């Protein structure tokens, strides 16, 4: 019998976003909340702006795609539920659409991203078909873009 390949610990840490992907109920929601939990203090205490969250999302894309792909290969699945780095990236992109950050915009960004991530309108669902970690992350990037656009429009009309 062939021994199991060792787990790639850095990929698991990034892919599960420091273990949030192991949440027993709603790991994707846990990943989104984890993204908010990081960005709120960065905004409040370090002066990060919505554009800063766009930069963070872009910086996390390459390592996130790599980690998602590695974890998926290790587990033998297309998009394992424990991989939530894609939700973190998408959530950060959704926050980038805010004209300003208030409790209403934080809540709207969270709800809108989760809505688009679950609903998967065209082309979100189509992007899931891309291979490996790219497909795992790309659909959440697009869901984040949709959420950011709606949040931007809502801010334009002073709805938050």
DSSP strand (E) fraction?
A: under 5%
Class computed from helices, strands and strand pairing: mainly alpha
Overall mean confidence score, pLDDT: 96
Q: Report low-confidence residues grouped into runs of 5 or more.
A: none
Cα distance spanning the termini: 60 Å
Give the assembly state of these chains.
single chain
Fraction of helical residues? 55-70%
Main sheet specs: none
Written account of the structure:
The chain is an all-alpha fold and 160 residues long. The chain contains 7 helices and no strands. It has one domain (29-156). It has helices at residues 9-15, 27-46, 50-75, 85-96, 103-119, 124-127, 132-156. Helix 1 (9-15) crosses helix 3 (50-75), helix 3 packs antiparallel against helix 4 (85-96) and helix 4 (85-96) packs across helix 5.
Tell me briefly what this model is:
By secondary structure, the chain is mainly alpha-helical. Helix content is 69%, strand content 0%.
How are the SSEs ordered, and which strands pair?
Elements: H1 9-15, H2 27-46, H3 50-75, H4 85-96, H5 103-119, H6 124-127, H7 132-156
Helix pairs in contact: 1-3, 2-4, 2-5, 3-4, 3-7, 4-5, 4-7, 5-7
Record keyword descriptors for this entry:
single chain, 160 residues, mainly alpha
